[in-house]
Amino acid sequence: MSSDCLEVEQKDSKCYSDSPRAQFSSLSWPARIKAVFWGNPPEDMAERKLLLKIDLLVMSFVCLNYWINYVDRSNIANAYISGMKEDLNMTGDDFNVINTVFYVGYIVSMVPNNIMLLKVPPRYWLSFCCFAWAMLTLGFYKVTSYKQMCVIRFFQACFESSTFAGTHLILGSWYKEHEINTRSATFTSSGLIGIIFSGFMQGAIYTSMDGKRGLAGWRWLFIIDFLITLPICFMAFYAFLAVQTI
């Protein structure tokens, strides 16, 4: 066999050993299962530690932020069927109008939020937006009319829209191309989990808190939402500073 042929075979062998398939085959079974759902870990130990740190801090924050985002936005439907409709004398399409106002605010604010995220570090802007919609969520417990609900709902959407746009900027900044897919799927799933959690939480709150301190159960829902959201707002400072400022 000629030296040229040997050189080609050596190159082919090296390419195969460096291929994702070869790397996957060299892993233990527990590592293979993890790789299927979370991707192959980096070969370099320092890079692997950095990736783990980003997952534990940054990824945890964006998932919790999106989770509470969906909890806060979906709880209005649970409140509606738990006494809010009767207490605010809502009729006809009032509830649909509230939802429409929310999505109008959400759509018109996505581009401005993207621009702000390019000007202001995410740890500041996302924390501010999270705190702002937390305060607006708390404001729901004091509403006395459907019109007040519409106003709060619009501005709540303006701040909540920062989460979806901001997270994709963060994922694209911190993760490599082959690492983003699983992180994006996990991020999206966290929002859907928030919808499920919201229903169970409202049921528990209505059963145990209705009438306490003279407040209806649906009003307590928004107070508790606020208390859950508040610590997540401040988590962004630690999450980003502990890794590195974007």
Mean pLDDT: 81
Largest pleated sheet: none
CATH class group of the largest domain: Mainly Alpha
Q: What's the architecture of the largest domain in CATH terms? A: Up-down Bundle
**H/E element sequence:** HHHHHHHHH
In the CATH hierarchy, what is the superfamily of the largest domain? MFS general substrate transporter like domains
β-strand percent reads: under 5%
Count of helical segments? 9
Number of domains: 2
The low-confidence parts are 4-18
Portion of residues within helices: over 70%
CATH topology of the largest domain: Growth Hormone, Chain: A
Q: How far apart are the first and last residues' alpha carbons, in Å?
A: 54 Å
Number of strands: 0
- SS-based structural class? mainly alpha
Compute the CA-based radius of gyration.
Answer: 24 Å
Overall 3D shape: elongated
